[in-house]
Amino acid sequence: MLYERRQNTVEIFGTKVPEPKILMDFLGFETHVKQIRDKRGAPMPPLWYDHASYYIVDLQAEKLFGPGEVVPVPEIVKAADYEFEIGCYVTAKATLRSKEDALKFFKEHCLLTILNDWSAR
Q1: Are 89 and 110 contacting, i.e. CB atoms less than 8 angstroms apart?
Q2: Of 76, 108, 80, 83, which Cα lies nearest the Cα of 93?
Q3: Contact predicate 112/88, CB 8 Å
Q4: pLDDT on residue 38
Q5: Is residue 18 within 8 Å of 88, Cβ to Cβ?
């Protein structure tokens, strides 16, 4: 008897994708991080260069917008900030022991997408 693992999927803007559990936004662009920290008078933390820095985004359907949709901006917002980012759906857990394992995992379990990040200022 064959066992087939069923994975929950959701339809996001007309495309079925594995149901995401969390959305992690990584701070991978050094110049951008430096600009943010400079505005606060804070130096770059040495650990930033050793470990991936990220924050977890609350996944709520009403906060996700598709192509051609208007992103509502509440009246209390002074400015809306926009960033183009690359998103990646990861469809499985991994234990990676080598660069080869990582590349194989990426090819098999990572789905890239465009993520337009809007922030209220």
Answers
A1: yes
A2: 108
A3: yes
A4: 95
A5: no
Q: What pLDDT was estimated at residue 61?
A: 64
Q: How far does the chain reach from its first CA to its final CA, in angstroms?
A: 56
Would you say 31 and 4 are in contact if contact means Cβ atoms under 8 Å apart? Answer: no
The one-letter amino acid code at 46 reads P
Q: Across all residues in the chain, what is the average pLDDT?
A: 81
Segment 59-111, tens digit of pLDDT: 666 677 777 888 888 899 998 888 888 888 787 888 888 999 999 998 988 88
Give the C-alpha separation, 114 to 26, whole Å: 14
pLDDT > 70: percent of the chain:
85
Q: What is the pTM of this model?
A: 0.56
DSSP 42-108: -PPPGGGGTS--EEEEP--GGG---TT------TT-S-EEEEEEEEEEE-S-----SHHHHHHHHHH
CB contact at 8 A, 53 and 94: no
| Beta-bridge partners for 102 | none
